[in-house]
Design brief:
Blueprint lengths: L9 H14 L2 H6 L8 E3 L5 E3 L1 H12 L5 E12 L3 E12 L2 E15 L2 E11 L16
Length: 141
């Protein structure tokens, strides 16, 4: 699938990713991924997927279910550079209003000719990490 949308920031990619999941829109979901055989998606089940086709097949299966999905997320850390951005968050997946999680998720975004794209998602089941109070956080550049 050619990347036709241009995402100006990693945050735009992240917003589009979660919106596509809730709307069960596979085309929109795959538009945030880099079209590359080196992209990786690791689901909370531990399934390791590599390459655009494998990731698309997996998400097609997930989005094809009958449960109503909503994801609430809390940003834990973010590292932004000129060409790479890493976001770590805690996700709470709501399936038919039943809360599942927490899930720890890390996304790696790269900037290329079509703006920013998701190149790696690693999601694992697990408790919320110890959060650093806002006033004590530092932004690393």
């Amino acid at each position: 699938m050619p990347a036709t949308l241009i995402y100006p920031t990693p945050e735009d990619v992240e917003t589009a990713f979660y919106k596509a999941i809730v709307q069960r829109d596979l085309i929109a979901l795959m538009s945030v991924w880099a079209e590359d055989d080196e992209i990786i998606c690791i689901h909370p089940t531990g399934a390791h997927l590599s390459g655009f086709a494998a990731i698309q097949t997996s998400w097609r299966s997930i989005l094809g279910g009958s449960a109503r999905m909503e994801i609430r997320r809390q940003r834990v850390a973010r590292w932004n550079g000129m060409l790479i951005s890493v976001h770590h968050m805690i996700e709470h997946l709501h399936l038919n209003k039943k809360v599942n999680g927490p899930i720890q998720a890390t996304h790696i975004y790269l900037r290329g000719p079509h703006g920013w794209r998701l190149t790696c998602r690693h999601a694992s089941p697990g408790g919320a990490p110890m959060l650093i109070p806002e006033k004590e956080r530092r932004v690393l550049h």
